[in-house]
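Figure 2 data, in text form.
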Amino acid sequence: MRKICFLAVILSLFISCSQTQKETVVPEPDSMASYEYADLAARITSVGEPYLKGDYVIFTQENNARYIGIAFDFEKYRTIHKFQIKEFRNEKYEVDDSLYFYILKLPKNVQELNYRLVVDGLWTTDPENPITEYNPEADLVLSQLDVSRNIPLVTEKKEDGLVHFVYLGESGQQIRLGGNFTNWDSWIYELQEVASGVYQIELSLPPGTYDYAYYTGVTSFPDKTNPHRSYNPDGKVASRLVIE
């Protein structure tokens, strides 16, 4: 049944995939800051294997097709992202060469990437990537890329539905948590030291806006892993977390 569902998704994407005309390079809406996109795109000089640059993956392809798209496993292959064209011009501003490229901003917790290309309406693996993975459930061969990297620990809501509060500091401290969800009582929750200098606590909080701070003794301070600030009832700087 899972194989049928996967193939149905692939078929629907094939039908909806249009072979559009070449156009000016434009970043995908809200996918990244325009200066980051422009900088990464400017550094592309040739076609080659996909590579990791920070939290971004750069894909390149030869310009020998009318349309190239890419779909990823973390989106269950439901979205096709269109490659853009980069042109290389000479001193007379004439086009000497060109290539296709796509820049992906990786979801935070993705450490391995499986994907397929759509070239002129046909699904295929990435010819620039020699690493593939056979998916027996879908009976398909997928391109695979290792995107493992160090991911900074931050306070956030994770896939398990819990909010993971994080404090990074010296080992052997007693760090407490208080906020508007405890009526600013800082003696209810204490973070546990899960590694040297790494303190965490997991809470189940419904969607909403939460102001909070960490405490040691009677001193409160904001969460350094969270850049969003607010104030506690005493007028001291605190942190703000919005859960959707």
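Caption note: Helices lie at 2-16, 34-42.
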